[in-house]
Amino acid sequence: MTSSTSLKPLAMILPGLALAILIIGYPIYDLGYASLHEVSRFGQLRDFNGFNNFRDVFEDPLFYGSLIRTLIWTFAVVGGTLALSLPIAMMLNEEFYGRGLARVIIMLPWSISLTMTAVVWRWALNGRAGLFNATLMDLGILKEPIEWLGEANQAFTVEILIGILVSIPFTTTIFLGGLSALPQDTYEAAAVDGATRWKQFRHITLPLMKPFINIAVVLNVIYVFNSLPIIWVMTEGGPANGTDILVTYLYKLAFRFGQLGKASAISLIMFGVLLIFTIIYVLLVMRGEAGAEAEE
Amino acid sequence: MLKKSILFWLILSPLVVVILFPFGVMFVSAFRPREELFTYPPTWTFSEFRWANFAEMWVKTNFGQALLNSLYVSVLSTLLAMILSIPAAYALSRYRFPGKRAYRTFLLMTQMMSPIVLVLGLFRMMVALGLVNTLNSLVLTYAAFNMAFTIWMLQSYFSTIPRDLEEAAWIDGAGHLTSLLKVFLPLAVPAMAVTAIFGFINSWNEFVLALTMIRSSDGFTLPVQIYSQVAGRYQIEWHHVMAATMLATLPVAIVFSWLQRFLIRGMALGAVK
Amino acid sequence: MASVTISNVGKAFGTMNVLRDINIDIENHEFVVLVGPSGCGKSTLLRMIAGLETVSNGEVRIGERVVNDVPARERDIAMVFQNYALYPHMTSYGNMSFSLRLRKRPQPEIDQKVRDAAATLNLLPFLERSPRQLSGGQRQRVAMGRALVREAQVFLYDEPLSNLDAKLRVVMRTEIKALHQRLKTTSIYVTHDQIEAMTMADRIVVMNGGRIEQIGAPLDLYDRPGNLFVAGFLGSPSMNFLKGRMRRTQGKAYVETEGGIGLPVSAATAAAENQPVICGIRPEHIAIAGEGGLPVTVDVVEPTGPNIEVFFSLAGQNGSAVFTERHKFRPGDRVALHWQPEHANVFDAETGVRL
Ligand SMILES: Nc1ncnc2c1ncn2[C@@H]1O[C@H](COP(=O)(O)OP(=O)(O)OP(=O)(O)O)[C@@H](O)[C@H]1O
Ligand SMILES: [Mg+2]
Questions:
Q1: How far is CA C322 from CA B252, C235, C239, C333, C339, in A?
Q2: C43: Cβ below 6 Å to ligand 1?
Q3: If both were cysteines, with which of B31, C118, C214, C274 could C226 make a disulfide (CB 3.0 to 4.6 Å apart)?
Q4: Which positions of chain C have pLDDT values less than 70?
Q5: Is the pLDDT of residue A289 over 70?
């Protein structure tokens, strides 16, 4: 119970910590190092070249295109997801017939690999034989099949919609966790005080859910910002780089074109952005915990 | 209640349809005879359940091998993550120690690190370690990336197991190890199982690292194998792809549906506290 | 069975001192109750005796052995936890036999002891149930049973009855006391309920803010509280405190309130003339006076069944009195009261110490 007790917990966390530092810490260091050097196609580090790699990145029009699309992609997917998830979570938090089934269905996309989801949608949206066209034509909405993924803007829009679809389960889960923790008697008190449903939402649900909304925003921003599979599988950033976002562009640079120095620089830039979001997230979580401790 | 239920289902129905739509597509395309895939104009109808599609697919796409690879990677990485996470989570929920806050912050930060940003550095590291193109490179990386989640989940569950149970065991004459084995672990097993299954699903579904680390096709995991059936090919055998996708996703989807309420509970308990 | 000696014990969590200079000598067979308001450090002290918290300063001895560095499992104590801490994955039988199984006792002996304990606690029909399937009172008994089978040196209880409803609490209180009278195991019992403390204890330790206020037999503490805190903490309804200054005339002593009313106190009181003091008088010691009593105004009357509690104001100060007679008072009535001078306690108004 003396000093040995404070060594014991340290010994318990150490092995995991070591693995995390090796797998997550070392590559960051390596990327930082590589980004300041000339790197051959085969990964050999040549001379130190200062910020040349970064200059290359900032002179590359494709980088800016990808950057802008990354912003659009992130804002659209996260915004759409949040706008849909809160009402969905509020419905799923209420008692109604078949709620269990509804929950299962809405959570379903989460269990499936994004890769597989994207593969299926790519087939479903196929211009000649896709069942999406078939459905729209059966319903009389379309006369002629459409090649959904043939044109960049349209493909990008479709990808955003699918991005929203697959982000809803996770976000709804966070909100459900938050809603189930809301004190029921507050609502009863508000109802007794004569608050309408809308006012209850406005003045009780929203403020109390704010910490969860914050966390959902930050986590979703991070996940969506980093999400490769949907765009990679459906269009590989094409046609003509028209749906490239930073991650797909980065992946192409690194593993298709062998521009490893430049790719390291982009990785590092993205890491910086991520770090900012992560710090925001950590602060949010810590503040939540401080609040919880103060309540105890 | 009935009116409310109908209303809610009506509101949710567009979403439900869009979610179930790909499953329909998968199902129809997997069972259709090949000739009916490209009828024009496209329709949902099909003439027979062609089970032979699955048998053909199994051979043509080397599904068995990919399945084994996926199992190997997911099982081992989950085991590794659990072995490292259980003591860490226990330490977090039971002890005060110097640097605890810093450690929690570190966990939160690693939870946020996505493989894609590090993939180039990881690849270079695996080359240096001579692990590139081995499934073990995936075991290590998946375990590392999953650990933040598993530690977090486990510690929030562990914290719900009252500490005084272990104290009662000590007073009853048990040592630390005995009280762990006889009192704590039996109570923690369900939580550990649930957490392990979520870790497993994460590994099972991972794409970017698998795509990067594994260079030869007999090492592909299922997502990469299926992706390789559609990427850069002129002739895509969609009925095989859909059959493979169905076989790879359905078991996971069923297990997940059964477990999702635990995830909500975990979130409420602390993952997002 | 053994004595427990606590000498100069202190406890700090980090930089926060929660216990200071605790000295208690608990004799063999004694039943000692630690009582005090929430957060005063009762549980911490008990857990230090149990070996669940380290001892920051001083010494804890069980029998002759200093146990500061002895782990809980080697102290040969049994403990009943506030939330019972029953192992949820074991039956009642499993819970009660756990310690014996850990000690690898022969099966017939385990069986015998568990059944004996279960018979004592009326638990025989519930041995095969899991804690989930038991009522609160039954769980409490299983927790007791787990301690009983141990035949330990010392029994520790941390608010074992606080999760029970009022009726059951009274029943269990009596049962624990009866059990102690039979087994005579040295017991330390933590509660914040002063009635539990009064009814069960051989000696009471009154704690406040990490210190001991007073130690003594229940009635001694009740009749001669050492200070204002103890006086106010024990007894319900609690003692009246009336401010004034000490006066003596013709061999009689009284406390004069601001309005010039003299409250009778014992002549033996060691207070100087004109010293600011507080006169403490228990409500049940107040009676209706015939002539020349203390004039009070009735504010509120509360019948409790056996008694009538009357809240009054006396020269601008509030007090209460308890009568068994069915007086028909109404708010606003003017009544004359008195009490025996030797029933009154006088406390120093500044230090709170009894004079
Ligand atoms: N592990 C700990 N770390 C820091 N402070 C603690 C710890 N345990 C207890 N304390 C503090 O020590 C003080 C005494 O706590 P303790 O639990 O002994 O009170 P108690 O008298 O049992 O109160 P109650 O009647 O509410 O159970 C409290 O102020 C509490 O906040
Ligand atoms: Mg306590």
A1: 72, 12, 11, 16, 12
A2: yes
A3: C214
A4: none
A5: no
